[in-house]
Write a structure and sequence with these properties.
Elements (H helix, E strand, L loop, with lengths): L1 H11 L10 E2 L2 H14 L11 E5 L6 E3 L4 E5 H6 L3 H16 L21 E2 L6 E2 L2 H16 L7 H17 L5 H15 L15 H12 L11 H18 L2 H7 L5 H13 L3 H14 L4 H13 L3 H14 L5 H12 L4 H17 L4 H13 L3 H14 L3 H14 L5 H21 L1
Parallel strand pairs: 2-4
Antiparallel strand pairs: 1-2, 3-4, 5-6
Helix pairs in contact: 4-6, 4-7, 6-8, 7-8, 9-11, 10-11, 11-12, 12-13, 13-14, 14-15, 15-16, 15-17, 16-17, 17-18, 18-19, 18-20, 19-20
Length: about 450
């Protein structure tokens, strides 16, 4: 666990009181949500790949939009949803807010955020992964909004409009919009029993009874909206819920709910046992799961992570390569993890291979600051100091350390191959930062 604890210490020192949120990244969570968004945006003028989804580790049930096309989902909302259709209904509602231009007021201008990026660490569901500038921005946006605006409420008109638009979105894309009502009723019951004063779904939205009236009225226009469930999507959703529960709830609570020997329950307890340090039990469960579904990339990812933290780098690398092979979509996180595993061998062969995968990670997501950190480390290990300086300059630029970015870009330019892509990019960084750094030094 030495590697993980180093990251926590390194990045928690940068976290801000105003951004005291755990923005998490997980491939299974991101891909499933992306698939739902894609399904419900087929008839919308908003393209699904234009939507930015951020996930907050929180025991409060909430979802909201802020600034542009950004949707924020609390993990507990997913856990409380009965099946994927309730989750889809919430996403449709938030998508309708974006489509209608209904956004939370914040005191931060989104267009200027890139110039004020401050780093926060990412608590990944499987392992600790630090440094995404995008998630840092998300933390600032939400943290600032919560302090300065108290999460400004949607107006009654906006909320009615979003509910009615959500019905249209769901019905036209093959999802029963009645599940928006069932979700609202569930949330009402949960919050009636809650004594917390934290921000929750009901505190940022109008009364449920009013919303149900709007939705029921709109449903009258869609007589054929009682679509059947998609069993494959629902299976994926139940596995995702189980994983999130094991990550966000205590081991005893997870074990009491997921106490059977089926695929969903084995997954929940595999995750939960991993986080309490019972790695042998977690591996035992995952081996059963892999036997049931040999091509599931998320089982391979998790078992590889467990082997890695136990310093079994060869088998960890094997499983991570299989996770990449069986995943339908390329992922910057998966390539980043594989690069990190290969660096642990401390050999030139594996380090050179790690560089290949880390470059792929950055190609997919140039804002993954931790991939830049690992790439700098890899270049340093093979004595490519000028390239290490360049990668370090990129990382510091992403996390808002402008003077350090300028310093390392200048160092990189001294010995880097002229006219190479890294040479041109170092020049770009220097040109971008030169005036700012000089002004700040005066």
């Amino acid at each position: 666990m030495r590697f993980l604890s180093q990251i926590i210490i390194l990045f928690s020192c940068f976290s801000l009181p105003s951004a005291a949120l755990e923005i998490i990244r997980d491939i299974e969570l991101e891909q499933f949500t992306g698939d739902v968004i894609a399904a419900i945006s087929d008839t919308s003028e908003i393209k699904h790949d234009e939507i930015n989804i951020y996930f907050i580790k929180s025991d409060q049930v909430n979802a909201f939009v802020t600034g542009g096309k950004n949707i924020f989902i609390n993990t507990e909302l997913i856990i409380k949803a009965e099946d994927y259709r309730e989750y889809a209904a919430v996403l449709a509602h938030e998508l309708a807010h974006i489509k209608g231009g209904h956004i939370f007021n914040t005191s931060i201008e989104i267009s200027n955020l890139s110039d004020r990026a401050l780093p926060v660490y990412l608590l990944g569901i499987i392992g600790i992964m630090a440094g995404s500038a995008e998630s840092g921005l998300a933390g600032i946006m939400v943290g600032q909004a919560s302090i300065s605006d108290g999460f400004a409420y949607y107006s009654r008109t906006q909320e009615a409009s979003a509910d009615q638009a959500a019905v249209k979105i769901l019905c036209e894309n093959g999802i029963d919009a009645n599940f928006l009502i069932s979700f609202l009723n569930k949330i009402e019951r949960i919050e009636e029993l809650s004594t917390t004063e934290k921000i929750n779904y009901r505190s940022t939205h109008p009364l449920v009874k009013n919303r149900i009236t709007w939705i029921t009225s709109s449903l009258k226009n869609y007589a054929q909206c009682q679509h059947k469930i998609d069993d494959q999507m629902n299976k994926r959703f139940n596995l995702l819920k189980a994983k999130l529960h094991g990550f966000t709830h205590s081991h005893d609570e997870t074990k009491s709910i997921y106490d059977l020997n089926n695929e969903v329950d084995l997954y929940a307890t595999a995750v939960s046992n991993y986080f309490i340090g019972n790695h042998s039990k977690s591996i035992h469960n995952l081996e059963k799961l892999i036997h049931l579904d040999p091509t599931n990339p998320f089982y391979k990812e998790l078992i590889g992570e467990i082997y890695f933290v136990n310093n079994k780098h060869e088998i960890a690398t094997k499983y991570q390569k299989e996770a990449i092979k069986y995943n339908e979509h390329e992922s910057d996180l998966y390539y980043m993890m594989l690069g990190n595993y290969l660096l642990a061998f401390n050999t030139q062969k594996e380090t050179t291979e790690a560089i290949k995968y880390l470059k792929k990670s950055i190609q997919i997501n140039p804002k993954n600051a931790y991939s830049w950190y690992l790439l700098a480390r890899a270049y340093s290990d093979i004595n490519e100091i000028s390239l290490a300086n360049y990668a370090t300059a990129e990382r510091y630029f992403l996390i808002g350390e402008r003077p350090l970015s300028y310093e390392f870009a200048t160092k990189a330019l001294e010995n880097i191959d002229e006219y190479s892509p890294e040479w041109y990019r170092s020049l770009d960084l220097i040109n971008i930062l030169e005036k700012e750094v000089i002004i700040n030094r005066q």
